[in-house]
Amino acid sequence: ASSLPSVTIQNPLISIAFLMFPVVLNKAQKLKLITSHTLLCVGAGGWSPLDSDHYQWLQVDLGIRKQVTAIATQGRYSSSDWTTRYRLLYSDTGRNWKPYHQDGNIWAFTGNSNTESVVRHDLQHAIVARYLRIIPLDWSEEGRIGLRIEIYGCPYWADVINFDGQGVISYRFKMKKMKILKDVIALKFKTAESEGVILHGEGQQGDYITLELRRGRLLLNQYGSILGHTSVTSGSLLDDHHWHSVVIERYRRNVNFTLDQHTQHFRTNGEFDHLDLDYELTFGGMPYSGKPISGGRRNFKGCMESINYNGDNITDLARRKKLDTSKIYAGRNLTFSCVDSHTFPVFFNATSFLQLSGRREHNMVSVGFQFRTWNPNGLLLFSSLADGMLEIALNDGKVTAHINVTQQKNSRVDIASGSGLNDGEWHDVRFLAKENFAMLTIDGDEASAVRTNAPIQITTGGTYHFGGKCYFLWTQASPFQRSFQGCMQLIQVDDQLADLTAVEQGRLGAFENVSLDMCAIIDRCMPNHCEHGGRCTQTWNSFSCSCDGTGYTGATCHTSVYEQSCEAYKHLGRSSDLYWIDPDGSGSLGPFKVICNMTEDKVWTTVVNNLPAQTSVTGSSRERRTVLQLNYSATMEQISAITSSAEHCEQHVAYSCRMSRLLNTPDGTPYTWWVGRANEKHFYWGGSAPGIQKCACGIERNCTDPKYHCNCDADQKQWREDSGLLVYKDHLPVSQVAVGDTNRPGSEAKLTVGPLRCQGDRSYWNAASFNTPSSYLHFSTFQGETSADISFYFKTSAPYGVFLENLGNTDFIRLELKSPTVVSFSFDVGNGPVELNVHSPTPLNDDQWHRVSAERNVKEAILQLDQQYREVRPAPEQGHTRLELYSQLYVAGGQRGFLGCIRSLKMNGVTLDLEERAKVTPGVKPGCSGHCTSFGMYCRNGGKCVEKYNGYSCDCSGTAYDGPFCTKDVGGFFEAGTLVRYNLVPDVVVAASSLDSKSVVQSLPTETNLTREDLAFSFSTSSAPSILLYISSRTQDYMAVVLRQNGTLQLRYNLGGLREPFTVDLDQRNLANGQPHSVNITRVERDIYVQVKEDIIHSLSVPHVFSEEHDSNLPGENTGQIDPVLIEKYNTPGFVGCLSRVQFNSIAPLKAALRTQVPAPVSHQGKLVESNCGASPLTIPPMSAATDPWHLDGVIPDGVNRNSAIIGGIIAVVIFTILCTLVFLIRYMFRHKGTYHTNEAKGRESSESADTAIIGTDPNFTETIDESKKEWFI
């Protein structure tokens, strides 16, 4: 292409009126702008170039700089010509054009779809320019490019000062040594330099403030007081010679720093609010005093306008020379008009090239240029030599030069220089090659220039191609390098600066798909869309975020990878441990570590501090107190998030004293106080309450000296202590303790401040129930312009319903259950509706809790269901990114109302208080029941889920386990002589005398089936033989599990009618190896199923019993004794080791022995110590015969006195049997052999349960119980 056909509209020449309407600048002024360009197609109203291609543009000259706020377009009158999409460029001088940006992109405006309709766009950000250029991108398929335009705006005027890098303006304060509390500084600047001080002020005390350009970024430095240095960076690519607006607003230590409508809010470091400066501020550079603070920084070179400091217009005062010499001093080399830049940038995309001519058949190559890009790779320059080729490329951020001469052997040059040159800044490249010499210089650094003396002969071809496309076309091969995407300027060929204006006019060279006199580079990482400290990297077309080490994930590091609280971890099935939590999710608070203690009914969150226990304090007095500072494992903001959502918080404090008073009397000045979360002093101690200057003993009236309200206030020489819990959570945690009475002789104190402990998470269970389709809750408008996340739990039996909805003019956001298996997330940010659907393989209206999380950011939209099913939709590369909503947020509203429960609704990290709003809303109830339907599966090993208002708990009382989810083994270590005995059915008469009827019922076994047993336990031991378990009855029937001499396991059954006990070896391995082994045994009638560890033993059968009277029932009828064979063979040395998770049917005897809080018919002999049974193999000597619990009479060392032992055992059993004869006779009279017949008890309607009804109406109930009476021996 040789030229860019264009139309320039100038004011006030009028020859052919083709505008839709005159350009409107304000209500009182109208300008008609037309053209006389020869390429204009006339005859119908509007502009239409003769050629409809992508090289056409329409330029408007507004005469002077104006502020443009809107643009409207229309097709050419009475034709088929219109423009469907276009870009807008603007400039002050008609050179160095800047494309209009919106939402971080070079914006493409939507045009017309016919000739008559008017499409108007209000600019998101007003622009100030004299020249406008409209670039058609797409047009009518039925005709050609056609356009009528109208521009809306208003006049603009500003004083301009040009700084040449030498002169500065000094603004002097009215008073010397100003202590400034509030500042407002505003100015606009433009420059082509990447370095320079824009303003500076300093004081003799070391305070200063500096605003400067550094590497094309704006850096604000402020220093005030000790440790008060604050540094904030904003923007990038500010050396583009376009206007940029800066506003700095400071009040005390709070600062708003705004650059081009992007505002950063921050708080300066240090302890003081004033900025102590000298008597002046300088604009354009450092002061002339040459103080060391300058550090060799360069002055600003460029233009500034509208400089304003606290209401004073600095530029106007300087221009009009209304000089008050105490305030304004204009330095040298300042002019009041902006000097235009002499650079002519060229913008390349992936399909661009620029061709320039050089000397042909010359023996030297000399080229130079400046470039800027974000891409690490790209071909910068290609030239065909007479007998070879030259390439200059960017590879992995380095510039490489490659020469290959084909006619000569070993004639090759490969050199590289620089690093990280894809940083978006301008970099200068100089390459020189001649006979046997080549040199590559980057950024003018001659010292680091790369040289080579490789043997080579150069003969130039005379043509140089910048941008790379021609190389790929000519070689017809896949390129090693990518095409260059970026900008170039100051291009030199053969040491001559290329005349790019002549290139634009078609008088020199050639080009394709380049944009001349414009650099359309965009910093997609500024402002940084990577949240929470994510690192942003970019290429020319996109950016990406690295979230490593941030604790967040997602395309923009928006979503926390941690749960919000210990409560949330518990309901994921986690146990007590150290966890990272993030209470506000995607909010500003970062994640932090806490200790989570999951108890059976509560979840405790613990935050520790660094104060050692019993910290000694001496030498303090009321006048000079010793202040102990406490630092926690989390910030105060993070701790506040815990306490605000907790149901209860507490912190233990203890003051041990000897002649050291604590609080004094309630009316006196306290000696010691503590500081809480809000930096307020508190004069009460642990065990007391706010406003009551007492200790715990003062509240309970049991202090050492009743005249005082603290033990330490008695001022005694003996050690005393005042301790207790601080429970007012709005005051917690303790951040400081000031001690004031340890300076007297003999006076001493020791302070302990425990960790902060909080229980519960109200936000996690904050729920509302929606009972009618028309019920809803409303909240303020959701603010999530560029980044939004929503998460909640829902439970419903309805097939559909809207969870939440928020509307704007055209924008909206909605989450709904579209069908029983589909959750939908839909929104519109101006690019048209987008809908994400996640399908569940199972119905979601199952009245169980399901979790929904949705996120939308500038990169993508995500919908996730139950942390398992998800859909991701990338955002369009070009388009709107801001979600603009205006209506209220409706929860469970809309035409398809929601029926069910919603809880833990979080939006951008903020939990909406559904319960509080539900209290005052008809049709909505606070809270939601039925948590066990969703979370009951976490109650393991037979634990029962118990409903609570704000959650659930697991009842482990009927299991052999403990812990919040019934997963913690309960075990005990058995020493020599230890025995646990459990009466499966306590004596009814005794129980009734000591317990109420309800307790008696609860203590009775739930099984009445005597033809089945379920036994499970785990053991570890290193000694054998031993008896592990023995279940006996008042007959000869029993069941026993023994460990034989060789360590093998044996099961022994003696059921009524068997002549000999039935025995089976369960495992042939030596199990007395110190390792844990689990055993599960189930008997149904005569069939026995056994599992040892993971090994399944095939089912076994007890031999057939001929007498129906003893048909495999346990126990049988006859009275018997403890099997003497067991005692003889397996009792010595007895069991020494660990037993755990022992359970027989629904009874856990070992747990009952170790958990004495609940009354149970259990006792133990010897020392029983609770153990996790995970220790190393035990090596304990055998117990002495005197302490053997199995010996009911006599001593049996190594089987010597076996007969006497057997006789003694028989005598004991006989005595026991005689005492129970009456009971057995009564039982036998009412016994139905082989079966049980149950009848509904009368009076069941008025009883609490079926068991209660039976006890109250059946006179034989007590006798029936004795039939199944057994004992455990462990």
Automatic annotation (TrEMBL):
What stretches pass through the bilayer? Answer: 1205-1226
* Pfam families given in the database record: F5_F8_type_C (PF00754), Laminin_G_2 (PF02210)
- Gene3D superfamilies in the record: 2.60.120.1000, 2.60.120.200, Galactose-binding domain-like, Laminin
Q: Which UniProt keywords apply?
A: Cell adhesion, Cell junction, Disulfide bond, EGF-like domain, Glycoprotein, Membrane, Phosphoprotein, Repeat, Signal, Transmembrane, Transmembrane helix
Reply yes or no: does the keyword Electron transport apply.
no
Localization recorded for this chain is:
Cell junction, Paranodal septate junction; Membrane
Q: InterPro entries from the entry?
A: ConA-like_dom_sf (IPR013320), EGF (IPR000742), FA58C (IPR000421), Fibrinogen-like_C (IPR036056), Fibrinogen_a/b/g_C_dom (IPR002181), Galactose-bd-like_sf (IPR008979), Laminin_G (IPR001791), Neurexin-like (IPR003585)
* Predominant location category: other
Q: Which residues form the Fibrinogen C-terminal domain?
A: 557-607
Residue intervals of the F5/8 type C domain: 47-154
- Report membrane topology: Single-pass type I membrane protein
Name of the protein in its database record: Contactin associated protein 2
Source species taxonomy: Eukaryota, Metazoa, Chordata, Craniata, Vertebrata
